[in-house]
Give the backbone structure.
Amino acid sequence: MTAPPGPWAQGSLAQRLFAPRSILLVGASGDPSRATARPLRYLLRDRYPGRVVPVNPTRGEVLGHAAFRSVAEAGVAADHAFVMTGADALEGVLRDCAAVGVGVVTVYADGYAERGAEGAAAQRRLAALARELGVRLLGPNCIGLVNVADRIALTVNASLEAGLPPAGTIGLVSQSGSMLGTLASRGAARGIGFSRLVSVGNEADLTVGEIADLLVDDPHTRTILLFLETLRDAPRLARAARRAHAAGKAVVAYALGRSAAGASLAVSHTGALAGWDAAIDAFLRAHGIVRIEQLETLLEIAPLLAGGPPPGRDRPLRVAVVSTTGGGAAMVVDRMGLAGVVPAAPEAALRAHWAAQGITVGDSPVIDLTMAVTPARYATVLQGLLDSPCCDAVLAVVGSSAQTAPQLAVRPIVEVAHRGADPARRGRKPLAVFLAPQADASLALLAAEGIAAFRTPEACADALAAVARWTPPAADPGIPPPSPTVALAAARALTEAARGRGARARGVLDEGASLALLDELGVPTVPRRRVPADADPATIATAASGFSWPLAVKLLSADLPHKSDVGAVTLGVTDPVHAAYAIGAMRARVARERPDAAIDGALLQPMLVGVAEAIVGYRDDPLVGPVVLVGTGGRLAEVLRDAALRPAPVDAAAARAMLGEVRGLSALLAGARGQPRGDLQAVIDVVVALSRLALLPERPVLEAEINPLLVGDAGAVALDGLVVLRADAPPQQAREA
């Protein structure tokens, strides 16, 4: 249990958290059947070599160990205290722990942020007290951790009653305590080994990102698995993932759940399109984290990632398949196809080479050896595919022989995977194995040999699809921040909004103010004139001077971010009299549909024609931070959901890649079906410009959207704009304006 030098040295956070030399068990029960007795029972069972001190206010001994009535009475300067008392006594216990020099406290008690506003306030007080006392906190609502490498089970989890899981190189960080036990027990049944398993609870102090960062420096951990229900410290996780990539360690995430906070804050279409799932996907991809869709995959994928992201990122992942069961291979290949993974047939020269050895195969992408399999033939074909330029990865499928005669195909897989004992050779190309029957012994053999073996076709296809999506962390785009005039314009708009009511008081700008802010950002916007809501034809004629009729006429209201939904837009207005009538008719419709909406006037805009309509949006997501979106725009933007998302800011190359993912818009801009081509570069410029809002000091803009951005054959122009400012936390510029 000697800690290595560096970040895991004696006295470090990692050492005190994972490998404490002494442990206080506060609230340890003397009843062996109780959950709070488990940590002591586990430590005794696994022969923990350090000092363990039970604390129980009503007992002088616990399970044969001398116990103390309080932390102060124990007087032990322990590395780690596992506190299992109720929340009402927790602050006093925390002070006592700090007084005797405890470095890390794990809090089992619940009743905090998971219980609503009152519990969240109590959790904030607890975290503030821990910071004040200089104690690091794991939890609250935390079931503890398991250091498999050093045989320390500091947890109340019942799955450890069966013993520690096998030691291995996988580190797991879970926001769900029960899933820690679930994954440990499932892994143990398969012979999959772990280094560390951590339940983080409510993350009042130590977060997923900080613990993952510790595992980057852990010599026992090669792959880091994350079970995510939300994100509480995205910047720290991003840093950890980038450090992991530099250290050659893959980070894999299974993410579930939706952000109620994010949904409630969304005003724009961008907010709806960039929900939890889209935002977390963009965040994970940008920082090189592999996202998988199935729980089984989380356990099984690690060896598949040993060589890093495969080459050929400008094309679909090509997977060659060798099988002893046509149906088993078809199940995986079918699901791979749904994810855009392409089966790859061997080249003619390789087929000829095999034929010379008596192995005849066709040009099918699935090489089926069912009727002619021998260990030598299977090994020869597998080795040829691993060495061939025809594919980026190889899938080996084994039928009933995996259960009854593993020497036919399973043993050859092991031999080929380790041939030459050259790890660099092995990591050059990902190798996945799917065993069609229930073949526990073969699965355990492959796991022990560090080969990615899958129990179901769904998990196997999910893993290969994840590898296909896996990219290194995106480089810093190096984009300069917007001009100071943008921040000043935002500050002035926010100051003006604060004087308003309703949506204006919440920082929502009407279209006129939104387009003015986009002007400052350098986005081309439609020419427009503002008129009073009760303007007569003469006033309208004067305002529209220089415009060519017909015009578009819109009501101005911060309370109507989506004007077309309530009939507050009229197109094809032919003259001033028509315009005055249209304004009156729209006001009447809005009065019926939204009587609470404040109407601040109307906008007159020329009618413009282009090649395509795009939506370009920005959002400061409450979980992952600033993101930028581009998609097929117009009234059906949310219906079509044809959009791409990235963390902001982005450079021109990233914006171009985003547009390549938006199939409908890309087709229109490319001149589909003989139509004129659109100005792709103009759209790229707007995406980059809007993404720079992420660089404003204190990030005063919560949401910004252009829908539609009208794209012509030369240039693009914002026909409508929506900006929502951070009214709840005014930036410094606003306070000084």
